[in-house]
Amino acid sequence: MTAKSVALASILLGALNLCSSPASAQDARKLAASAPDSAPRTTSSHPNATPSSAASQDDARWRMEGEKRFATNCGRCHQTPHKYPPRVMATAIRHMRVRATITDDDMRYILRYITQ
Amino acid sequence: MLFFRSSSTLLAGLRILLVATALLGAGATRTTAQSEDSQAIKPVPVFTMGTGLISSFEGGTPHLGPLVSPIFLIPIGENWLIESRDTFEADLSPPPGSNNFKGVVEKEVDYLQLDYIANRYATVTVGRFLTPFGIYNERLYPIWIRDLQSDPLILPLGVGPTNASTGAMFRGGFNATSKIEVNYAAYFSAESSANRFESDRAVGERVGIFLPGPRLEVGGSFEHLLQDNRSNAFGFHFAWQPRPLPLDIRGEYARSQNGSGYWIESAYRLNQVPLWRDQMRHVQAVARMQQFYVSTVPTESLLPVNTNMFEFGLNYYFEDNFRFVSSYGRQFAPLGGNENVWTLGLTYRLVFPLGNGEVE
Question: Which candidate from B38, B115, B241 shows the least CB-CB separation from A75?
Answer without folding.
Answer: B241
